[in-house]
Amino acid sequence: MKSRYDNEMELSFLSKSNNEAFARITVAAFAAQLDPTIEELADIKTAVSEAVTNCIIHGYEDTEGIIKVRATLLDNCLEVEISDNGKGIEDVELARKPLYTTKGNLERSGMGFTIMESFMDEVKIHSVVGIGTKVTMKKKIKKEENKSLNDDEDVLINT
Ligand SMILES: Nc1ncnc2c1ncn2[C@@H]1O[C@H](COP(=O)(O)OP(=O)(O)OP(=O)(O)O)[C@@H](O)[C@H]1O
Ligand SMILES: [Mg+2]
């Protein structure tokens, strides 16, 4: 079977906080094929980190479950899907709002979705209470000829 993407990968791992770095570094390493700038890579890592942290903290809360990450590349676009089978979100539009959090007493600032939206080109949230949540994010990586001159440093992915 031929994939309709240029490349694709899937990860699944337990909702342990150590795996947040694992997910963000792995997606960054995969996205490095598109030759992103350090800044583009940092944006991807931050967005993945926010989405995975949400699955751990909100989706599964005090329980443990599986988080899935699926990433695809098509032309110069990265798409990342991050999903859990956790408790789900009652009101997605409300959850997207800056500063909205259901865990205000636990040092959460309610900025995760806002950060994902500002660092990625598109963020879609699909959630069903009691079933789980899937966040799909897209980012276009600028083609080499459109990059500014000072962006051509070596890309560091292991942070
Ligand atoms: N995977 C998820 N499962 C269940 N609820 C979620 C999930 N992701 C987000 N939410 C809900 O959406 C709200 C907003 O998420 P957001 O990431 O914007 O803020 P936060 O996680 O509360 O705070 P911060 O990300 O700044 O630490 C959360 O407080 C939570 O109620
Ligand atoms: Mg969050």
Bound heterogens, unique: adenosine-5'-triphosphate, magnesium ion
- The overall pLDDT average reads 93
**How many strand segments?**
5
CATH class: Alpha Beta
Number of helices: 4
Number of domains: 1
Please name the CATH topology: Heat Shock Protein 90
Provide the gyration radius in Å. 16 Å
Overall, the morphology is: globular
**What is the helix content?**
25-40%
Characteristic terms for this protein:
single chain, 26% strand, alpha+beta, 4 helices, binds magnesium ion, five-stranded antiparallel sheet, Heat Shock Protein 90, 159 residues, 31% helix, binds adenosine-5'-triphosphate
Give the topology, please.
Layout: E1 7-14, H1 18-31, H2 38-59, E2 66-74, E3 77-84, H3 92-96, H4 112-119, E4 122-128, E5 132-140
Antiparallel strand pairs: 1-2, 2-3, 3-5, 4-5
Helix pairs in contact: 1-2, 2-4
The chain binds adenosine-5'-triphosphate (ATP) and magnesium ion (MG).
The site of adenosine-5'-triphosphate (ATP) has 22 residues, from α2 and α4.
